[in-house]
Amino acid sequence: MQILNKLGLTRLLSAAILGLGAISTAGTASADSAASAWAKTDHTQVRLVSASATTGDGPALRLGMQFKLQPGWKVYWRSPGDAGFPPHIDWKGSSNLTNTKTEWPAPKRFSVLGLETLGYKDEVILPLSAKTVTPSQGASLKARVRYLTCNDICIPYEAKLSLELPPGPMTPSAHAHSIDRYSARVPGDGAAHGLAITDLRSVEKAGKSVLRLVASAEGAFTAPDAFMEGVPGLAYGKPNINLSDDGRRAIIDIAVDGLDGLDDAKGQTLDDRTFTVTLIDGKRTAEQQLTAKPGDVALDSGASNADQTAHPATGPPSLWTILLFAILGGLILNLMPCVLPVLSLKLLSLVQHGGGEPADVRMGFLASAAGIITACLALAGVLAAMKAAGSVVGWGIQFQQPWFLIGLITLVTVFACNLWGFFEVRLPAFIGNAGTGHAEGVGGHFLQGVFATLLATPCSAPFLGTAIGFALAGATADIFMVFAALGVGLALPYLAVATVPGLATRLPKPGTWMVKLRVVLGFALAATAIWLLTVLAGTSGADAALVTGALMGAAAMVLFVAHRPTGRGLKASAPALAGTFILALMVPSWLPAPATNSKTTALDGIWQPFNEAAIPKLVAEGKTVYVDVTADWCLTCLVNKGVVLSDTRVQEILADKNVVAMIADWTKPNEAISRYLARYGRYGIPFNIVYGPKMPDGVVLPELLRPGLVLDAFGQAADIKILTTSR
Asked: What is the pTM of this model?
């Protein structure tokens, strides 16, 4: 669990991102024949530059990826630290180009809210080495660059750059000096700067595992810093520096987290593990691979370590792993409390095929599965468009919009009235009966799948958050692939029945009991409409919810009266329903929305409003902070609060004088909460986390809580003694 916080935040946050991304492409052709056009965004500019405008006589090419950043914004080093991900360059589509390699100038350290990250601000050129396959020919360079830039929020970008280098003698371009300047900042063995890394030890200090680095300098150290890489699964703290009297020798202690996650043959130890060590002191740099040996070392002692073998660095999950997560998350979503409102539709889809033909069952359930997958792809399209437009994106955020809620309330009301027998609509055969699900067409089943998906999206599920975070941090294609996999997972129960239609055909044939069941299921949908009205009250106010509810009641009455034997049927009800829907959509603009989202609950005396900026200070004072990101439309959140956070043992801890319980209400759009979630790679809720002196970066809890999980998180994050003090 330690690594899930520090490095789990690292890796998930590196894929799942704290803001919105965009795609930028190189604009008009550059007048500079040795540089591509700038790919510009609101915060960055990036282009490909060459040290020569031609390929030259030999195979070697000297290139650079140049970033210019707005004040305060940064991009990341090859090992970003506790958050972020480094620029990644894909050369697919290039011709006469091979053996490309990115070099990394020495980075700067950025410490924010307990997170240690490494990267560059203002401007940087990443030197690139490459070769031509045939030196006598020109080279066509096509670079697709994916990178993350951060300030108060982080935004992933993608740039497509192109540069044509014709054949000819190599002559220095205007960019040669700049590329060389940044190449000089790439750490070497340290000899040119008079730096040497002489020893690396594994020690225990104040109950923590520490890497103790010994370094020396020909001239006194001024502000040394060190960065560790190499062992998958470990996270490294900010170094503690101890200099000798003459300043020419340094002992650098770096705390290490995540040992409990190591499960290889060496075990949960730093001994005999190899690390890449980068030492920086102003403009002086050195880099070396060292193997940690047990035992302490004095400040005036000298020892060397010649082991040069390093473990490869770990990377983010592969696309195939993410797609598997999306399928599993979609399948588990069928079991989450959020799907309670759609159980009536699922049950109806099953029982209406009792005694039917297997072919009809298979076609109906395949149509429902197709509706689910189509709805997920439609959501992917909306999110991709919002992301490209610079809007906040997330899973379930449509429930923050009054117009969406009113549309859904209207649909649920109409579905309920249909189940009660207030009306029957026979649509054209190519559409099918959307309301009753008769076997004459597949359109009804397809639309039921779409509708069920919309109702099932307010909450997240295990594996789903990781997949959604990866998708929204990636390219448009990633979003569509992940959401398609999510749709497959959500549709698996329907596909199972389509594969084995006997699961439905063995049920009793529809009869009088079916009519009664439809009435019961209609009341279940009516309860869903009432729940949606309570959500609308949170976004637009109680008055708006009451007026909308009254309009829906009027619509139900119109349907009931118009479709009686003496009524005028669809000719009378259709215009009335359309008018009612239009009036309902106008309600939020007529009535003022509530100023806050505060709710009166049994926990009001415990909870206080979310204040992210106050968390580090509270933890530094020895407090433990519990944050619950919730919303009225998140049924899983409500279950967590009603069952787990109301548990006597949990309430006793939350009410302790050394515990601060914060609630972040995401019922309405809130950019600060969206950014906060994205920092942890989350784009949906529920989200619960515990910060404490032992875990200042927080212990992230799963979507579905249990009292034991919450208690364990407090034990990991805080000195357990604070949980037993008097209030």
From this structure: 0.48
